[in-house]
Each structure stands twice: as structure tokens, then as C-alpha cells.
Amino acid sequence: MNIQFVDLHKQYEPLKEEILSGIEKVLDGMHLFLGENVQALEKEFAQFCGATHGIGVSDGTASLNIILRAMGIGPGDEVITVSHTFIATAEAILLTGAKPVFVDIDPITYLMDVSQVEKKITAHTKAILHVHLYGQTVDMDPLLDIAKRHGLRVVEDACQAHGAEYKGRKAGAIGDAGGFSFYYSKNLGGYGEGGFITTNDSELADKIRKIRDHGSGIRYHHDLVGFNGRLEEIQAVVLRAKLPHLAEWNARRREHARLYSELLRGTPAITPGESSGNVPVYHLYVIRVPKRDELQAFLKERGIFTGIHYPIPIHLQRAVDFLGYKKGVMPVTENVVSQILSLPMYAEICDEEIKHVADSIKAFFELS
Ligand SMILES: Cc1ncc(COP(=O)(O)O)c(C=O)c1O
Fold this sequence. Notes:
Blueprint: H1 9-29, H2 36-49, E1 53-57, H3 60-70, E2 78-82, H4 88-94, E3 99-103, E4 125-131, H5 140-150, E5 153-157, E6 165-166, E7 169-170, E8 177-181, E9 195-199, H6 202-211, E10 216-218, E11 221-222, H7 233-242, H8 246-264, E12 278-279, E13 285-288, H9 292-301, H10 331-337, E14 340-343, H11 351-367
Parallel strand pairs: 2-3, 2-4, 4-5, 5-8
Antiparallel strand pairs: 1-9, 6-7, 6-12, 8-9, 10-11, 13-14
Helix pairs in contact: 1-7, 2-7, 3-4, 3-6, 8-11
Bound molecules: pyridoxal-5'-phosphate.
The site of pyridoxal-5'-phosphate has 14 residues, from helix 3 and helix 4.
């Protein structure tokens, strides 16, 4: 039995007609950017997240960068974030000219260790950009409290957390603003690039709208220095066709996670820890195991494809050598990344496939 890490065909088939007829309409009208589909998606996805404002953008990296720029963050400023994330989180900060300052992660949730944030705050700190990694939300209440006491903005990297909840509030609508990616394999993904920004701050929303379209509200009138961060109509058609199914797909992912955790109980694999009050959406289902690389190779031989998200923490990437971080400064992050393995996870994966993955993991431990 071959099991892909993500299989998008199964999701496409039932939506194919709706998506293709929507794309045909766009092409017949030739209104390709920021048209009626983007405007409708902006209302629909903002409402889904419980946010007042929604702004469609070109991708997740741009979403975070635009938020920071709209907050006035730039050279000389520091933004506190994590090193255990996709590089884009740090790029979004670096591209403003500001400096990312990394904090270690919690060993159970693999998310920002909020208890370590305060000691990283300096006179230059302007914001905290945390990441709801793998579809689990960060412990927001203490983080918001720290931000309030120090006058910092809070930006949510919700690129892996469409619909994830923290104490009844959805990711993207808890901090000052949230950035989403609609990369094709996300819980809500387009068929190309796409991104989204949510905020409840009207003034910030106005600036964000302008920055994503060359700093203009009226064509060829540029009030701010922006860039081309627009979302395409064709992607908005795909995303609007998928959005009504997102809550059900997320619920299925939670069921799959429950089954994986139940089947792996009693093995050396450490299954994901959930914090109370948190409704995760399992963009990724990540276990921690000894001999991770051997297990990954063993599963591949059996036709099971897995991933590592992410094998090298950002503070040890060559691209950011100039920040001066050394091995050993982020002990939890460095230990976790050597053991994590992401198992096949998507809404349409079936119980038989999950059982086959779990049986294969058990077989590996029995042999080793
Ligand atoms: C945590 C995180 N942040 C940011 C991004 C960047 O999103 P995009 O690839 O759409 O630019 C991603 C996407 O992979 C992500 O997973």
C-alpha cells in the first residue's frame, strides 16, 4: 500500500465542476485581480475567523511582511519570534529591515515558550510574531498580557492554523493581526500561491490594503511605499469553493490525529500534546521518536511518505549567520528538530491507511 504524505486529488474531484466553472467565468470577464471573488472571500474568510477585516494577499510570507510594515516596523527594531518554524516567519521580519530575536519552544507543544519572552524584550522590541505551528494555537492569554505591559504589537503566524481555536477564539483574530498562507497543501489551499490577513484594527487594515497594492487606494495615486502583494481572482474562486468544507475537513483531521495517537500508545513514539482550551486543526501530525532518520527510511521502503518540519532551526541556517547565533543556545528547539517526524495527514486519508502507517511504525520498533 502506497501512502502519500498529502494527496490533493481526492479533495479536487468532488469540487472540480464548481472550480472550473468559476475559473471560466473569471476568464470570460478578464477581471483577474482583486475583483468580486477576492472581495467575497475577504468577507467570508474574515467571518470564518471571527475578524472584522480580511485582506487577500499574494502569499503567506507577504501577509506577515505587510502586517509588520503596516505597523511601522523597520530598521533598528526587534521582533521576538521562534526559530522552530518555516524560514518565511523570519524572512517576513528581515525583509522589513528589523531583526528577529528567537526564543526557545515548549517541549510538549513545540510552540513559543511564552515564559521566556519577557527576558528577550529590549528598548528596540516592537512586536511579537509567534507561530501557531502544526495547527496548534500558542498560549495567547499570557502572551497578550506581556505585550500589553510592554506596549508591543502581537502578530499571529496562522499560516498552518486555518480555523484553529484558543479558548473559543479563532487563530488570526486574537492578536493585533494574523497572516495566513493558502499554499496548495495547507488546510485551506489554492491551486497556486495565495495568502490572507485578518485584523480587528480598522486603521491597520487600511494601511495593509494599500501596501498590498503598491501603496495605493486609487489607481496611480501612491500614498505609501508598498509592493505587488495582490491575490488573484482565480485563486479566490478555488478558495471560495473550498471554504464551506473547511470546518468539516478540520474535524476529520482531528479524528485522524486521535486514531494515530490511540494506535501509537505504548510505543516509543511521543504523540502530539494538546493544551487545554485549544482546538487544533492538525495541519501536520508530528511525532517524536528516537532513530528518526532510520524510521523515515524504513517507512519509505514500505511506500509511506513522511516529512520533517523542519530539520534545521532558523537560528542555525546559513542565511542568518550574520545574526550571530551559535549551536546550543536554543536547547529545546535543537533537541526537538532531531527527533520529529510528520506522518501522512490530510482530510481524505482513510482509517485503513492510518492503521497501516501505525502498524509499520510498530514493526520498526519491534525490529530495532
Ligand atoms: C509557519 C509558516 N509561516 C509562513 C509561511 C509562508 O507562506 P507562503 O509559503 O504562502 O509564503 C508558511 C508556509 O509554508 C508557514 O508554514
